[in-house]
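Notebook entry, structure prediction.
Reason for the run: the old model in the group folder had no record of what sequence produced it. Starting over properly, with the input documented here first.
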Amino acid sequence: MKLTNKRYYFDYNSSSPLAKSVIEWFASGDFFVTNPNSLHTSGKKSLKYIRETQTYLFDTFQLGATHQVFFHSGATEGINTFVINEISTGDEEKHLILFETDHSSAYKIKNITDQYKINLHLKTLVNSAGELKTDELIRFIKTLKGKIIINYTWVNNETGIIWPLDEAVRIKQATGAFIHVDATQSVCKLKDWNLLSPMLDAYTYSGHKFGALTGVGFSFYKKDYPIKYLVNGAKGVLHGRPGTPNTTGIYSIYLALRETIKKYDHDESLAAINYLKDQLDNLLKNHGYVISKNSLNCCTNTLSLFFNAKKGLDVLNMFDMNGIEVGVGSACSSGILGPNRVLIAYGVDENKSNNSIRFSFETDLTMEKAKTYFEMIKKILLKAF
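New structure, fully documented this time:
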């Protein structure tokens, strides 16, 4: 995507630019919103925005019969809400399973687990392509006694590797574990991304991953689930999270999601990302490779390059100086790069785990765009070697 400052932006997994429909809503001057808990006309208008978004989400993800939805500040809050809720309630023995490939919003919950009476298990359990070893995980869980809590990353934000939802359902059926699905990177990036299983306990999303405002997200959870929010206060609108809802942000979810769905063509985007992978893998030859290139479980907008003898940050800076913005490390990294535990889990040597960059493109990637992007990327990479 070409930005207004004439730079090209290939870091959508970090944050997607605002959807056109969201920008147009702001430009119309009709985005004045008040507290939706208020009983006056303007308050009721704000409440209508939230109800419209809620209905659209239930219709899109087909979970209205089994799940509720609550709006929050984004995936970090959503993920923490469910994991902390589970590890802090109940008297039975508890086991929290986190993966070395999890996003930091889940993985760093390990830093507070000593406050609770739980058993923490940090697992790798992936092959060299980043695909989950489901049978091995199930066998491990069956050795445990008590409540099992799992954060299941549907689409990895760094590599685009998909852990199929069918596998999460199989784990649920075999073990009875509480399974929270980190669905943050899933919207319009894989086939049947909106067909969620009602068997799984919770799903979490961030709006800024598909063109909504930053600082807003949503989670689905089973209707009979005794949710406890991370914030305290008066009961929120629609019996949700306490505090005044971010009505503008919530409605931007509706606008952006509707627009993104209309533009997404799975088969076209899959062909385009595979074209880029093939071309770039061939270009790198002895200098590196496309990570997990041959996996069949890849999303349609993400690819990561590994370099044998180049630090990812150095290559990122070369792209940046040439007006192309790419990612390095996790999609929401703070700029401080330690060893990349995701690539280490894939079998990469720790000393070379930061030798990678990530391209994450718009969800409506086409073959025409892919061919243009490849020529741009090629020029920079040839300078690097």
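Summary: The CA atoms of residues 212 and 252 lie 5 Å apart.
The old model has been moved to the deprecated folder.
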